[in-house]
Every structure is written in structure tokens, then in C-alpha cells.
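#random but structural
TW: two for the price of one
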Amino acid sequence: MSHEIWLGLNIDPSVDRREEAFWRARLADTHGLDWITVQDHPYNPNFLETWTLLVALGMATQRVRLGPNVACTPLRSPAMLAKMSATLDVLTGGRVELGVGAGALPEGIYAFGGVAPATPAERVAAFREAVEILRGMWAHSGGTFSYAGRFYRVTGARPGPAPAHPIRLWFGALGPRMLRLTGRMGDGLLVSSPYVPPERLPEVHRRIDEGAAEAGRPPTAIRRGYNLMGVLDLGRPDTQGTSRRPGVIVGPPARWVEEILRLHEELRMDTFIFWPVMGNERIQVEAFAQEVVPMVRERGRGGGRG
């Protein structure tokens, strides 16, 4: 466990909750949280476009890191995504963390004119090309960059401006191929607790570590991020709920503190994004920032924007 604990908040991009989005971002910023993230499903008609929202949130905050959780690469040219990320990184003084994925809903991608390769192996291959282009564009910010792949091409692009800091790439990965690719090429992993419950994490780490070993990288080169979904029960009717789904946490602040520390100390996770799923979310988010985060940092020797 070489990484300090990062603690953050997910922000819902629903159009009817846009004021809540800015409230959460400012809360995270003023309470010293490490990261705010926004899911990226542009084919959902009730969602604002993620990158536009991130720019607005970046301008409304001063310190907190921010990024998509995770960007759908089939709907965004990787060269343009590199330019967008570098631009926002410059505008925010080096606060961008870029989550990227191969695309979770082919029907939505097709509906918006994107092209999602037909097979899982092809999706992983296309995603790898997108990652190579992202890194190539940032590495050649002072010159030109070209790339000829099976799925993507870049011809003599002039990529600048350079990002304000080395932007980390966090992979949204579930399958064995993507997990090994995370180990070979990623800076971080982002998974969600209902889809990858704690009992699956050892297998996830094994595949990432295999990929890292194949690339000659130490396992510690990859941060391990967890979207923690659940209910922070504050003993009042509007913050109570139940769930039988594995990985969903329901309990008071002390339970959340214990679970985060257990996930860090026993299961190698180091980055936690709080994602309330029912009840009075505003009260829960406040309690997470004001109660859970300080206790985790005090007991876990982690956190902070280092």
C-alpha cells in the first residue's frame, strides 16, 4: 500500500439537478476532498454533457481534482479528448484526472453516431489505440504527432497546449483483457462496488498485477479506485435504506469509516468516490465530507491533495 487514501464525491449530471452539482463541487472543494467525478452517458436525454459540465465545475472550484468517471472513448476522438483534457488541465491549474473506458452501452453509442467494435477483443484493441493517442498527443505538445492504427488515425496533428501536469489515465475496466491492459498501460483503475463487490477484488488485483509484470511495471504504479455506492444512515427517516446487492454499503458514518479502512488495508484499494443511491443525498454528502473523511484521514494516515 504505497498510495495515500484519496476521498471524493460523485456528481450526478441530471439536468434537473444542476444546482446540486455545483453545490457538491463547492462542498468537496471547501472541505478538502481529493476528487469530484461525473459519469459519462451522453445518450441519456436527462444528463448534461459530461465534459461541458466538468469545465463549468472546474471554473467554480479552486483546489479539488476533477474528471469523468469514465469518458466513453468511442464517442470522443482520442486526439480531441487529449486536447480537451490538456485545455481543462491548463484552465484549472493541473487538476484533471482522466477516467476513460471502452464504452458500456453499444446501442447508445450507435445512436449518437459512434462506432463500437463488434467483439470484446476489438473493443479492447480500439481502447488501447485511444490510450496510445492520448499519451502521444500529450508527449508531442511542442511539435507534431501522427498515428496509424486499425481503428484510429492521426495525421500530423499539432497537439498543444501541453497539460499543466502529467494527467493520470484511470481505466474503467471489468473484463480480464481490460484489467491486464490497466496493469500494462494505466495509471489507475475505476470500478464500482455493486459490479465488483469486495470479494472479487483479489481477482481484479491479480489480473492488473499480471499486466504490470508483463510491462515491467511495479504493481504500485497503478492506483486502485472504488465507486462506493450505498446509503450513509444518519438515524433519520430520509437517510435510511436497505439493499441486498453485494458491495452496496448501508450504515452510519462509523461503518463507512471501517469499510473504507478495511478496503484500503486488506484489499489494496486507495481511492474512494462516495456515490449515494437513495434517500436524502445532500445530507449524506455533507456527513461524508464532514464526518467520514476526517475520521478516515485521522485513522488511515491518508488523504490530502498530495
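TW: number two ↓
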Amino acid sequence: MNPVFPLLALRAFTEVGRHGSIKRAAAALGVTSGAVSQQIRLLEERVGLPLFVRGRQRMALTEAGARVHPGLLTAFDQIESSLRILEAARGRKTLTISTVPAFAASWLVPRLGRFTQGHPDIEVRVEAAAGLVDLHRDRVDIALRHGLGSYPGLRSAPLMAPALLPVGSPALLAAGPPILAPADCLAYPLLQDGDRADWGLWLAAHGVAEDPRAERGTALEDDYLLIRAAAAGQGLALVPQEYAREEIAAGRLALALDKPWPARFAYYVVMLPESEQRPEVAAFVAWLHDEARGAASAQAPLQ
């Protein structure tokens, strides 16, 4: 057997097995799909066994591939973790934070100056994207995720559970029928969350009988998009109270009805178990919780 260790081929095999797709593995590795295919072919030729069953939609591991994939996956994740430790040892403390655009723009970034003032030796980089990152693969130290808190293999701690409020553009509300009770919102176009669930839950929480209109309307995956659509007069939106406060103060939105309702989802601080041992990570997490507590205690009634 060739004594040269086929590291590139094994890396390609690991990523294709992780993603079930040559295209997605290539994107994760930053190379072309052809390069990944070639490495898989070279590895299969070397071991003399097929490692994948090629399907129309997915690359499935063969029995032989499935036996070795977990060990290789762990090994490459450990290599990545070791490299991060070496980079941290250079003395330059850096943190990469991943979160959704709405949370970054409306909550995190406006407060970030307070952290950098208190910790001038720590450089912070914020990545705002709607897609979830893979903390085992991507160079992200802390993810601020919006969900139910179940993140297997990761450390997670609740940061805040926003309450949702119905809002709309001042022009839309001035031109439409008065909203005196939650059921009156159904007379307006409703802007939906990605699951089309929030309006139905909000109305039910306030005693409104089930109505098919609660699930109709344009659906948007991100709170930032909901806010922009509502500000453009496209309908009423249920948005987190913290975001609504700033948009109302700026005159872009108006409160349709002062009836907050706790959202099903909360924001969580999520990281790899080993990351929380780094002093800069611990400092940022402690600061996040201090800011969340301060924001909760400082909330004033909406006008």
C-alpha cells in the first residue's frame, strides 16, 4: 500500500459523509465539487472498496464507509479544536460571534461598544446571517441562536425570551379600522413568521377563537424582514418587544395593541464545551447576560 497518508482524500471523505453531498462538502472545504469527487475516487481506489452509494439526491455511506466515518469525523474535529488553541496562544484574543441579522442590528451591535471599552484587548467579529453555523466546522466561538434550546453536543444557556407585540406602519394603522381588541387585527393583512404559527398562538393566548385568517399572508423567515415589511405598510407583524421599542421610537412602526405575549422561542448562548474555558469567551458570555438583565429591568411601557 502507498505509504503516503491521504490526508486530503480522508478530509474530503469526512465532509461528504457529514453533509451527504459532494456540492455541500465542497462549499464547506472551499474547493470545487470536481476536486472533492477526485479525492473520493482516489481514496476508493487506494482502499479497494466503494465508500459511498451515489443516489440522485444524496451520497450515502456504504457499510465500510459507515464503520470508519465516525472516527475520522472526531479526529478532524479534534485537529480543528487544537488549531484554535494554538491560534489563541499567539496572544491576540479574538472572538467570532454568529447571530441572526435582526438580533445583531437591534440588540447586539448597539451595545457592543460597552464590551470593547471594558475589554480593549479582545477583538470581536460579528457574523450576521440567517443560516445556522456548524460550530464543529466553522470558525465561530459563540452562536446566539433563536430556538427551543436543544443543541446536542453543545453548551447552551438561555439569554432572553422576548415577548411579541403586534405592530404596523403608522400610515397603515391610521387608514385602517380601529384595533381595540386582539380579534380586530384579523381585519388587516398579517405578516407571518416562517412557520405561520405566531399569529394563531398570539390570538389564542388572548382568547380569540381559531380563524383561518391567522395563517394567511406573506411569510418571512427573519424578524428583520418582518420589521421592514411592516414598516413598508404591507401588514401587521408580531415582533419582539425589544425590536418594536426602537422602531416605534424612530417613527417607523406604531403599536397596534399593547398585548405582549411570550414567544415560543428564546435566544440562547451556544458554544462548544471546550470554548467556555477560554477567558475571552467567558468574559463575553458574562457580559451578554449582564446586558440582557439590564435590558429587562430597564424596559419602559411602549407608547
